[in-house]
């Protein structure tokens, strides 16, 4: 028997090679179902009952494949990888030949890496050897790139692929690539037009176009999942034991990191809509909505109104904290990146900012004895002209406290609420004074204290021994004050 592994190459590039939300969502759905092409759309019979078997407590036995009607059986799918047990090498090669052809027909340019080893009685040894072989395949495999070779061929400016189809939308004809056509088809198949959250017009998510058109891309990714999945098979070598542990891990990952948090986010927004029911009745555009772009495994990418982003992220982490540990003794944790942007900004560029914010948090979570939840955000004020680490280093490093741990973020929100009572002009003035210098800041603090804002005075006293942290948090509050704290009256 042969144990094989499959892994998609350059998934993020495939998804975000376009700024069109329909195509991004369609690409995400294609990738989430890409292994289904191998399992269900080739001439081979591959058993794919692992999820039901796990839920029903049925043990995995590799010997069951021998003499069965199946050519292979799915061991499990997780972490972006698919593990399959094939009867022999010949069957494995045939599966790959058909799978490669189908990938072109169904996705056009998704590239899948595969590797295999002879099956032994030691699963961990087989898995270790599989990863070695997979890395060899990545380095030696020729990555085909579709391109035009003729000077008169029209090409897409983002992907440089040939424009091969003409489509009509809204009475306007446009030319698109084969890849775009397949992504749009996937979008239409999986996201019905009558779903209010499926519109690719970002203006429909804003509160009021032209007045409050700030949206947020929120990218959330689980922490240290590779090490956690390794821990679940420590001390085990038998196929049945290891597969059972990995299947349970994979099955619950999506439940804990995507399904339950998304339900909590919907509950949060529903509560907002109930609170604003009278306003929404007069103007339905005021309804709080969100748009799921990517949701699978331990990763979520969503779009929502900029003013809702803070509450959406908090709803996510409140739910995540309730979930049982996937790896015993290690809590389930994630990092969230929030990019605040105008609805007309290029989505792919904004997504990169959100992802970079998430990575900023992960750098802190990777420190020894940490592995905590972190949140970072960035307000794209006047377009995206550089990468986040450069923007942060050149413009904000001396002033910001970002990224925040979850406890620090709660502290940030409390300070923001208190500052909500001193007025927008005073908060913005404080933020500006921090940038100008120490003397400006001290003058502004005394000026505001003279207005007899008691809770503000208490804050100043409470942070007397940690003034630098307080100043950095004030700066961050001033950046997002209009979106997250304007109108607060908690002082």
Topology:
Layout: E1 2-9, H1 11-15, H2 21-32, H3 34-40, E2 46-47, H4 50-55, E3 72-78, E4 81-86, H5 89-106, E5 111-118, H6 123-140, E6 163-169, E7 172-177, H7 178-190, E8 214-222, H8 225-231, H9 239-275, H10 277-282, E9 290-296, E10 299-305, H11 309-320, E11 334-342, H12 347-365, E12 374-379, H13 388-396, E13 404-405, H14 406-419, H15 424-436, H16 438-449, H17 454-462, H18 467-485
Parallel strand pairs: 2-3, 11-12
Antiparallel strand pairs: 1-4, 1-5, 3-4, 6-7, 8-10, 8-11, 9-10, 12-13
Helix pairs in contact: 2-7, 9-11, 14-18, 15-16, 15-18
Overview of this protein structure:
With about 500 residues, this protein is of the alpha+beta class. The chain has 18 helices and 13 strands. Helix 4 (about 50-55) links the parallel strand 2 (about 45) and strand 3 (about 70-80). The longest helix is centred in the middle third of the chain and has 37 residues, at about 240-275. The radius of gyration is 26 Å and the shape is globular. The termini are far apart. Mean pLDDT is about 85; it is low at about 195-200.
Keywords for this entry:
13 strands; globular; alpha+beta; 5-stranded mixed beta sheet; 48% helix; 6-stranded mixed beta sheet; 491 residues; 18 helices
Quick take:
By secondary structure, the chain is an alpha+beta fold. It has 18 helices and 13 strands.
Output the radius of gyration.
Answer: 26 Å
**Multimerization state:** single chain
Please identify the structural class as seen in this structure. Answer: alpha+beta
- In helices, the fraction of residues equals 40-55%
